[in-house]
Write a structure and sequence with these properties.
Blueprint lengths: L9 E9 L6 H12 L2 E9 L12 H4 L3 E2 L6 H10 L1 H17 L4 H20 L4 E5 L3 H13 L2 E6 L1 H5 L6 H7 L2 E4 L2 H10 L8 E3 L20 E5 L8 H14 L4 E5 L5 H10 L6 E5 L3 H10 L2 E4 L14 H9 L3 E4 L15 E3 L4 H13 L1 H18 L2 H21 L20
Parallel strand pairs: 1-2, 1-4, 2-3, 4-5, 5-6, 6-7, 8-9, 8-11, 9-10, 11-12, 12-13
Helix pairs in contact: 1-16, 3-4, 3-5, 4-5, 4-6, 5-6, 10-14, 13-15, 14-15
Length: 435
């Protein structure tokens, strides 16, 4: 609605890894809602989606204007950036090279990010961009750090689970110190950042929850006659597919009539196929691959239960609050989930779902059986989950919070355009884990 749109259009560059990405629909929803509110977004992506990969219809509005990093770094891009921004080009180059010399293991990302930043910079100038926002603190934020150095624009970050719980995000402390603000989408992640990063950045880190469009029509919850147990997510360690398959073997001994539908794809697919075969449940398991959003919703509406058996991966990676939980709650599908990371912030045991310890197949099987055997309480918990998602996870309310931060930042920078940047020297970068 135009009535609640603040006057004046902002122009923001969004730095993304892959765009569009079916596993990052939450970012697409955020972009679409910000545009509805008068924030013009220029997506700048490091990689293109795989040919033939499902694409959310809302992504089409952004694809034609998305700027993609070229497949190979182009020296000409860097030279043109140095000519157009002599001081910024030199400063960004020194920053990348100095950190590369100090941490040779980071050199490839830093040099690649410098090339990407040099490629994106003219597009930002041509589009009248006022601010840079990086989604993920890994390479998109490394590009953002150098792009802000080159162009003199302000920078902000959205931190996600992998950024916070693994060592993947290089120079995280410097990125936070250079940023006008950063956001996390769960309190669990916020607390982790505040406990691992210096006090100087604490006032810049904000909780801005992900949201879903609660006004958009969704399928009615009508579970199929055959009990479907659904799991939705990439086939990677932290999603806990192995735990669910072992739980499914136990459930088959109690009740043979069930179907486990695994929606998603990833590197663990061959292993999961072999595991289902070795457990004797291959006939009960449907690895249906990556599905478009409308088919995900149809699957959730037909399932007796959504299972989110998340675990902490060997490298420390873990889920935050998977968005499929919010999608299932809006439809009214009962939820069983692991007590990992921020999941209990929404899935409260015996209130909005059932929660079990991670990596315990028997406990998971018991919780799924409780939903299948006694659907009345499960549906009451699902109704409470729907009430909560409507009250707390409306994309309009949550995107408004991010918009306010963006507008405050741009207004502050325009009032004080000559304010020096808060660059650290390479020697100031601490050793050890960066959060």
């Amino acid at each position: 609605m135009a009535a609640d749109r603040p006057a004046g259009e902002l122009r923001i560059a969004y730095l993304l890894d892959q765009f569009p990405s079916v596993s990052e629909t939450f970012i697409l929803r955020e972009m679409a809602e910000l545009e509805r509110r008068g924030v013009r977004i220029l997506p700048c992506a490091l990689t293109r989606p795989d040919v033939g990969a499902p694409v959310h219809p809302e992504a089409e509005a952004f694809r034609s204007r998305t700027v993609y990093r070229p497949p190979r770094p182009l020296v000409g891009d860097w030279l043109r950036a140095c000519v157009r921004w002599p001081k910024g080009g030199a400063s960004g180059t020194v920053l990348a090279l100095a950190h590369s010399l100090r941490r040779p293991a980071h050199a490839r990302e830093l040099v690649g990010s410098l090339a990407a930043a040099a490629h994106f910079a003219p597009a930002l100038l041509a589009s009248g961009i006022q601010h840079i926002h990086a989604q993920f603190a890994s390479m998109p934020a490394t590009v953002g750090l150098l792009l802000a150095e080159i162009t003199g624009l302000s920078l902000s970050l959205s931190l996600h689970a992998r950024d916070i719980f693994t060592d993947e995000s290089i120079l995280l402390r410097q990125k936070l110190l250079e940023s006008e603000f950063a956001t996390t989408c769960t309190k669990f992640a916020l607390d982790r950042v505040l406990s691992t990063q210096p006090a100087a950045v604490h006032g810049r880190v904000h909780l801005v929850r992900h949201g879903i469009d609660i006004a958009r029509p969704t399928p009615d919850y009508r579970p199929s006659r055959q009990p479907i147990i659904a799991i939705v997510g990439r086939l990677v360690e932290k999603k806990g597919h192995r735990v669910l398959l072992r739980a499914a073997q136990m459930l088959r001994r109690r009740r043979g009539d069930l179907l486990v539908v695994i929606a998603g794809d990833g590197p663990l697919r061959p292993e999961l196929e072999s595991l289902a075969e070795s457990l004797g449940i291959a006939a009960l398991v449907n690895l249906c691959g990556t599905l478009p959003q409308d088919q995900i919703e149809e699957l959730l509406a037909a399932s007796r239960v959504l299972v989110v058996p998340s675990v902490v991966a060997a490298d420390g990676d873990r889920d935050g609050l998977p968005n499929v939980i919010l999608e299932a709650a809006l439809i009214g599908t009962p939820i069983v989930a692991s007590e990992v990371s921020a999941i209990p912030e929404f899935v409260v045991h015996r209130e909005t779902g059932l929660v079990v310890p991670p990596d315990e197949p028997r406990r998971l099987a018991d919780a799924i059986a409780a939903v299948l055997d006694d659907p009345g309480p499960a549906l009451e918990r699902a109704r409470e989950a729907r009430r909560r998602v409507v009250a707390e996870y409306d994309i309009r309310r949550n995107a408004q919070a991010l918009e306010a931060l963006l507008r405050e930042t741009v207004a502050r920078r325009e009032d004080a355009p000559s304010r020096p940047r808060r660059s650290e020297t390479p020697d100031a970068e601490p050793t050890g884990k960066q959060g």
